[in-house]
């Protein structure tokens, strides 16, 4: 096959800039990820949007921040601004495990090699640029900037940080999915305005002096948070701040937020309304090569790309509002869906890739089965301030019809280039349990489940009950585990009907706020009774901009300000995690002794088959 010309990618080097006949770049993007020109990678999306707006864009991917900083200088000075992102993950989550151990690989780097981005990458990159080019504005964005836009607790440093705008010295921050504010910013700078003048754009944040008047924008109202200095002294005030930020982030018509930081004032403009179908299509239909930049060929595959290169993302957002999850904080709780035409166009593009063998790895989204779901009466949604549409119960205004999704599955199946299309994203199983979801009037959930199980499961189906304790699940904003039992029963019945053996793989979290050690022992016993030997497990990590992070740091729930106990020491966290692996010989004595100490011999018997009598433990 003939190789594509290098000019099909956005330029990474000065030579590539010159090949395009450009003397100067309008914007230079600095990214902590390798450059993959695919709609699943934020730098590519941002670069292609800027290109579609007529800008000349270059990318500096994974610059060396420890040498003479030549990478930051190689493309010169941009006409308008530098755009900085840590990449598709927060750099600290990317680097460290829940136990704060350094990871040995990086999925967004060729060959999976670690060490190609710094800790707190957004801040490090931005400060370097400010030193080299003090007169060039810096715009920061991506998930790291988005989730750290106000005073936040950093688990890895174990302290509160101010807004990342303060530490990074950047001029402006775009939070959430950046297409809408970015197009407005580009139009502003092209019209001759400085970045610092664009203070009336939705979904951006900036810092000004407290002594200066706030910009007057339409009918915007302003909500004031407790200052960063107050938060340092008062954990309860910090927790109260979070509730305000989450509520405003999930509104259709939100208020502007301000927070004092020293003599400065952080200003966070309200978000844009969720993208419409045409806007989503416009973003996904840009001329991506769908390939990593050719410069990486000799360095090995990029694991994150290998995982998604034959997958299709059909929607964004999640209305689950789980306490430990950052999706709604970054993508929003309202679902933004692509059109069927755009999805099928991408499927067609994938089938034409030379190494495609006919198998799509995923037809999904943040939660696989939320495509096109929204309020039946959107005027009710416009007034809603709830962080979740399905907790503690499913809103009766939520249309949970799975038929649009079932129809897409069938159309993809019918494509002549597709042998099998799998659903690799996690399925929100509670939407499919009639006892929990009363909105299944015409039975389309059963039709969806049958289609999913018989056509789209790649050996195993992933679901995420996360826990078995109802008390812990309430803190997580997840439904009772009894609904997982109901889903499993339905799943098993359909599987038996068609003679299929495709196990369910449930995901669980240990040491989440509200979870006691005894709850973990119960979880292990209950899942053992269901026939599971758990593999897909994780220890809770407090990530910024989540309810669970606020509880971990402050000790109280931000909505009630009531205390919630949380495992915090390394020993407490490891103790909870060990119960997942009751079936491993090296943990059996520890579990037996620990449950004796906790006065729960009944759980020891369920897990290990031991009984306690006067002469000791026996099988």
Brief characterization of the structure:
By secondary structure, the protein is α/β, with parallel strands linked by helices. Helix content is 34%, strand content 15%.
What oligomeric state best describes the polypeptide chains here?
A: single chain
- Output the radius of gyration: 25 Å
How would you classify the helix and strand content by structural class?
A: alpha/beta
What separation lies between the terminal Cα atoms? 65 Å
Figure out the total of helices: 23
Widest beta sheet: strand line-up: 3-1-4-5-8-9-12-11-10
What helical percentage do the residues reach? 25-40%
Uncertain spans, ≥5 residues at pLDDT below 50? none
The mean pLDDT is 95
Annotation, overall tally of beta strands: 26
Biggest sheet descriptor: 9 strands, mixed
Strand content range: 5-15%
What global shape is seen? globular
Cofactor: [4Fe-4S] cluster
Domain Radical SAM core: 304-584
Family: Belongs to the UPF0313 family.
Organism: Aquirufa echingensis
Give a description of the structure:
The protein has 619 residues and is of the alpha/beta class. It contains 23 helices and 26 strands. The strands form nine sheets. A nine-stranded mixed β-sheet has the order 3-1-4-5-8-9-12-11-10, sandwiched between helices. Strands 22-23-24 form a three-stranded parallel β-sheet. A two-stranded antiparallel sheet has the order 2-13. The longest helix is centred in the last third of the chain and has 16 residues, at 482-497. The model has no long low-confidence stretch (mean pLDDT 95). [4Fe-4S] cluster binds at residues 318, 322, 325. Residues 304-584 form the Radical SAM core domain.
């Amino acid at each position: 096959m003939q190789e594509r010309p290098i000019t099909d990618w956005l330029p990474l080097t000065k030579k590539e800039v010159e090949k395009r006949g450009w003397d100067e770049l309008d914007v230079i993007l600095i990214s902590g990820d390798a450059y993959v020109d695919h709609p699943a990678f934020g730098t590519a999306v941002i670069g292609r949007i800027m290109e579609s707006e007529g800008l000349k864009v270059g990318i500096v991917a994974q610059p060396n921040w420890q040498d003479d900083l030549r990478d930051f200088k190689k493309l010169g000075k941009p006409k308008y601004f530098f755009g900085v992102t840590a990449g598709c993950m927060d750099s600290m989550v990317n680097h460290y495990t829940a136990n704060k151990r350094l990871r040995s690989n990086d999925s967004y780097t060729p060959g999976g090699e670690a060490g190609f981005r710094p800790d707190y990458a957004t801040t490090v990159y931005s400060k370097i640029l400010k030193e080299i080019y003090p007169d060039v504005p810096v715009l920061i964005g991506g998930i790291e900037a988005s989730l750290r836009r106000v005073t936040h607790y950093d688990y890895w440093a174990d302290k509160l940080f101010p807004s990342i705008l303060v530490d990074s010295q950047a001029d402006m921050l775009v939070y959430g999915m950046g297409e809408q504010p970015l197009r407005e910013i580009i139009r502003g700078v092209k019209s001759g305005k400085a970045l610092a003048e664009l203070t009336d754009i939705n979904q951006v944040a900036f810092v000004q002096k407290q002594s200066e008047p706030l910009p007057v924008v339409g009918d915007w109202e302003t909500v004031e948070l407790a200052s960063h200095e107050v938060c340092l002294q008062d954990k309860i005030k910090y927790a109260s701040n979070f509730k305000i930020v989450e509520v405003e982030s999930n509104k259709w018509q939100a208020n502007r937020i301000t927070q004092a930081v020293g003599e400065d004032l952080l200003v966070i403009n309200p978000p844009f309304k969720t993208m419409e179908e045409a806007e989503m299509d416009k973003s996904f239909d840009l001329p991506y090569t769908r390939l990593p930049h050719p410069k990486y060929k000799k360095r090995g595959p990029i694991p994150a790309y290998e995982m998604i290169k034959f997958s299709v993302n059909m929607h964004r957002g999640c209305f689950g509002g789980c306490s430990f999850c950052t999706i709604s904080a970054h993508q929003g709780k309202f679902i933004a869906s692509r059109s069927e035409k755009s999805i099928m166009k991408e499927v067609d593009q994938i089938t034409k890739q030379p190494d495609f063998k006919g198998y799509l790895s995923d037809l999904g989204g943040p939660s696989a089965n939320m495509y096109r779901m929204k309020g039946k009466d959107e005027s009710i949604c416009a007034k809603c301030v709830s962080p979740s549409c399905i907790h503690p119960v499913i809103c009766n205004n939520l249309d949970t019809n799975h038929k649009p999704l079932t129809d897409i599955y069938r159309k993809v199946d019918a494509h002549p280039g597709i042998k099998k299309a799998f659903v690799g994203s996690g399925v929100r199983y509670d939407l499919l349990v009639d006892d929990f979801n009363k909105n299944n009037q015409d039975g389309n959930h059963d039709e969806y489940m049958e289609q999913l199980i018989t056509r789209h499961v790649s050996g195993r189906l992933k679901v995420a009950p996360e826990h078995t304790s109802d008390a812990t699940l309430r803190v997580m904003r997840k439904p009772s585990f009894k609904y997982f039992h109901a889903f499993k029963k339905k799943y098993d019945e359909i599987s038996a009907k068609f003679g299929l053996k495709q196990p369910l793989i449930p995901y669980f979290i240990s040491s989440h706020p509200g979870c006691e050690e005894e709850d973990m022992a119960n979880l292990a016993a209950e899942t053992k009774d269901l026939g599971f030997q758990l593999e897909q497990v994780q220890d809770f990590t407090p990530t910024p901009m989540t309810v669970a992070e606020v509880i971990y740091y402050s000790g109280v729930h931000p909505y009630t300000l009531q205390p919630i106990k949380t495992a915090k020491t390394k020993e407490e966290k490891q103790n909870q995690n060990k119960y997942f692996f009751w079936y491993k010989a090296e943990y059996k004595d520890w579990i037996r002794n620990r449950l004796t100490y906790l006065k729960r011999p009944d759980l020891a018997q369920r897990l290990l088959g031991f009984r306690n009598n006067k002469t000791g433990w026996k099988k």
